Amino acid sequence: MANDTAKKLLERVRERRESRGLSQEAFAERAGLKYKHYQSIEAGRKIDIRLSTLQKLSKACGLELWQLLHPDTAEFAVGE
């Protein structure tokens, strides 16, 4: 179950990144992560993600962490 949850979360991050027209490298830089680390996260090779990394990803997505973790709310926050 946790694996499914991680996959859904990372899919939302990827969709958010793509909707902003950002490459993985640009998104990683915006998030304050190393490119290879972010690439591994998005590809699902790293699914045990630290809270601090989730906070960085949510900031780069333009969301609060709770919005990223609660998909229904995150969709309403997209109207930027």
Question: Summarize this, please?
Answer:
The protein is built from six helices and no strands. The protein is an all-alpha fold and 80 residues long.
Count of alpha and pi helical runs: 6
The CATH homologous superfamily is termed: lambda repressor-like DNA-binding domains
Task: Compute the average pLDDT.
Answer: 86
**What kind of sheet is the major sheet?**
none
Shape: globular
Overall tally of structural domains:
1
Strand content: under 5%
CATH topology: 434 Repressor (Amino-terminal Domain)
Helix/strand-derived category reads mainly alpha
Which H/E pattern describes the elements? Answer: HHHHHH
Helical content class: over 70%
* CATH arch. level architecture: Orthogonal Bundle
Q: What is the level 1 CATH name?
A: Mainly Alpha
Describe this structure in words.
The chain has 80 residues and is an all-alpha fold. The chain has one domain (2-73): 434 Repressor (Amino-terminal Domain) (Orthogonal Bundle). It is 70% helix and 0% strand. The chain contains 6 helices and no strands.
